[in-house]
Amino acid sequence: MKGNQELIDTLNDLLAGELTAINQYMVHAEMCEDWGYTKLHDSFEHRAITEMKHAEKLIERILFLEGTPIVSHLNEIRIGAMVPEQVDLDHALEVDTVRDYNEAIVLAGKVLDYATRDVLMDILEDEDKHVDELEELQDQIEQMSLQVFLSTQN
């Protein structure tokens, strides 16, 4: 089924965001593992895997719409030197992602591609959860102090 080119381009932009998130989360996960923060490692790694599934869904949809998935494009990967910075950078990435998915959902509706809109709404639900999880970590760091928070991440 030949899809709307503007929507296919938007899906490729979203794909770049997902591929960027995978890389950023994996680096943060491995840094936390290296520092001995197993729970944070697992949390970041789980988010990276979810982002991989999102990328897969986007690739499938782009192909269905007879577009070409662009997997060689990444946005800026922002790596935090310490845990609070990692959480803040990941949160900023997710907030931008939620905005991008909301805009793509509007576009899918505008071009009357409701199946793509449904796929995007499904992914958006996960992205909203990521924002909540990262805000929870930010709150814990603030309320417990960094040292106490990190002592709970072994």
TrEMBL record:
Protein name from the UniProt record: Bacterioferritin
List of residues binding Fe cation 3: 46
One Gene Ontology MF term: ferroxidase activity
Species of the source: Rubneribacter badeniensis
Signal sequence interval, chain numbering: none
Subunit field text: Homooligomer of 24 subunits, arranged as 12 dimers, that are packed together to form an approximately spherical molecule with a central cavity, in which large amounts of iron can be deposited.
Root EC class: oxidoreductase
GO biological process, one term: iron ion transport
Catalytic activity annotation: 4 Fe(2+) + O2 + 4 H(+) = 4 Fe(3+) + 2 H2O
Residues the entry annotates as binding heme b: 52
Lineage: Bacteria, Bacillati, Actinomycetota, Coriobacteriia, Eggerthellales
